[in-house]
Amino acid sequence: MCFSSLTCAGTAGSLQGRVEPASRERFITIMRRMHTAGAQAVILGCTEFGMLLRAKDAPDIPRVDTTELHCQAAVGWMLA
């Protein structure tokens, strides 16, 4: 499998929970470029990426949201 990872550099286009549309579009462009280059999925390696992307943004590109994974693991640990 081929994965590509996107990591934070600063605020990833959000400021205090507000997402700039230009930042979202740029991020989607980068995701599409990586997918075209052979990435089978994109690892969203920053807590802000989940806020940046919506479900309808590039639905054809599989993504792994590390914040979501950490939350699921924490809940699983607490309920075990």
Explain what the structure shows:
Helices cover 42% and strands 21% of the residues. It contains three helices and five strands; from the N terminus they run E-E-E-H-E-H-E-H. The mean pLDDT is 82. The strands form two sheets. Strands 1-4-5 form a three-stranded parallel beta sheet. Strands 2-3 form a two-stranded antiparallel ribbon. It has 80 residues and is an alpha/beta fold. The chain is flat, with a radius of gyration of 13 Å. Strand 4, helix 2 (49-52) and strand 5 (63-65) form a beta-alpha-beta unit.
Which oligomeric form is depicted? single chain
Number of strands: 5
Distance between the termini: 31 Å
Largest sheet: 3 strands, parallel
Q: What is the averaged pLDDT score?
A: 82
Choose one word for the global shape: flat
Can you give the helix content as a percent range? 40-55%
Computed over alpha carbons, the radius of gyration is: 13 Å
Order of helices and strands: EEEHEHEH
The fraction of residues in strands falls at: 15-25%
Q: How are the strands of the biggest sheet laid out side by side?
A: 1-4-5
